[in-house]
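Extended Data, record Helix-turn-helix domain-containing protein
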Amino acid sequence: MKPRKERPSAKWGRGGFNAFPHSVLASEKFATLSPQATKLLTDLLSQYRGSNNGDLCAAMSLMERRGWKSKAGLANALKGLLDTGFVILTRQGGRNSPNLYALSFYAIDDCLDKQGFSKFDPDLGIKSAASPRNDWLRDTPAPDLEKAKAEAKKLKKQTDIIDLKNHLKANPNDKYADNYRKAIEEYERQAK
């Protein structure tokens, strides 16, 4: 008889768990988050139950229980997460209703209130989705193609110079030797 597989809960203890994508954890943008922003991200992640992304709350009354002492510190951490795209505002709060947020590295769930209406602010244009928005990736600068092309061209000229010098060493009496020397001088001048 095969031995029974170990129950998954034996590995991580009681209660639920949330997977934190390695692509987020290994990103340079995540590494540059302030300690307070990182803590707030994990506090928001602790509210996520698998079907409520978009219904996460960072109200001070809720966050005090998670160890937050300062409204200004919470506001700065939240601004850092919104600016970097790790968190998305899904509902602008008002009197007696808090702001709601979603984690951009998870798909946004359809969050309904008790009457069956969407909790999302229609002015923000947020809708549930089957795949993550990954707003945190959008600010990542695209590679500078012009700079890359210029570097490749410079490298090509350097290899051409080496090839021409090697050819002249091997064939000093080549009938095109003068042309090669002129080309080498021109390439070296341009490479500077």
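Summary. Strands lie at 56-57, 87-91, 100-103.
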